[in-house]
Amino acid sequence: MSEISRRDFLAVTTSVVALTALASEAGAVEAISESNNVPSSVASAFAANHEIKPLAFDPAKLEGLSEKLMRSHWENNYGGSVKALNAVKQKLAAFLDDASLPAYIYNDLKREHLMRTGSVVLHELYFGNLGGIGSADTVVKKALIDAFGSVEVWEKEFRRMGAGLGGGSGWVVLGYNLHTGLLENYWQWDHLHAPSATLPLLVMDMYEHSYQMDYGAATAMYVDAFFRNIHWETVSIRLEKALKARLVWLTGGVR
Ligand SMILES: [Fe+2]
Q1: Alpha helices of the chain — where are they, by DSSP H?
Q2: Could you tell me how far CA 98 lies from the centroid of its own chain?
Q3: Looking at the domain assignment, is residue 184 inside a domain?
Q4: How many angstroms does the Cα of residue 204 sit away from the middle of ligand 1?
Q5: Domain of 126: which CATH number?
Q6: What letter would DSSP give residue 61?
Q7: Position 52 in a domain
Q8: How far is the CA of 108 from the centre of ligand 1 (A)?
Q9: Does 191 map to a domain?
């Protein structure tokens, strides 16, 4: 695993201190709202203002993944989750003060909130790590070798997990855990489940809608195509940020 320079660490720490000071001066909710461009009159936790993020690549130029598939996935599955998340947040805001609504019914909405948030985030990370030429840089390779013994072992497990989700649903995630400091592959069988404190670095969608249009039930062919299109530059940036976040996480007496 690459060492993070003292200069980078101090820069990150300074940013966190500055944000903390801002939050205490202006009020935490307002500060968070401003950072997400949420109008100050609406608390960010209830703002139904999630927008569909455009693809960062030309979907007509992926290798082995058709434009029709990518556009359908982006528009219908991801776009549908964004719309659903906004609808759920609107209902949460409306029902919070409705004393006639039992708390367990309110929590049904909170479950939807959890699921839709997971779907939106994971889809954005998935599309964000596509559009490349499928070749990891030396920093990522070294991290994989340090954690798994070799890049081949990492890839073997990642692919095996994808095969295991064939015909079903879920995600395969290479993640860095801020608490354990471990780089591992995580099996996520839906949008709800992930190890706490894990930052996803590489995300592979294994829901059937990710490949059925191009490959039918041939999951292995989809996984091959996914690997040919990984945008490793993005993975490398995520890894660098995760390592910096780990240093921040360890400061200030966190147990
Ligand atoms: Fe999906």
Answers
A1: 6-26, 28-35, 67-72, 79-95, 103-128, 138-148, 151-164, 212-215, 219-228, 232-250
A2: 33
A3: yes
A4: 9
A5: 3.55.40.20
A6: G
A7: no
A8: 22
A9: yes
CA of 129 to the centre of ligand 1 (A): 13
Residues of the chain with pLDDT under 70: 1-41
Ligand 1 centre to CA of 81 (Å) is 9
Domain tally for the chain? 1
Handedness of CA 194, 115, 38, 237 (dihedral sign): positive
CA of 203 to the centre of ligand 1 (A): 11
Per-residue model confidence as pLDDT tens digits over 80-102: 999 999 999 999 999 999 999 99
Residues with a beta carbon under 5 angstroms from ion ligand 1: 77, 205, 207
CA of 211 to the centre of ligand 1 (A): 9
For 51, the token pair is: 């927008």
Distance between CA atoms of residues 98 and 105, nearest Å: 11
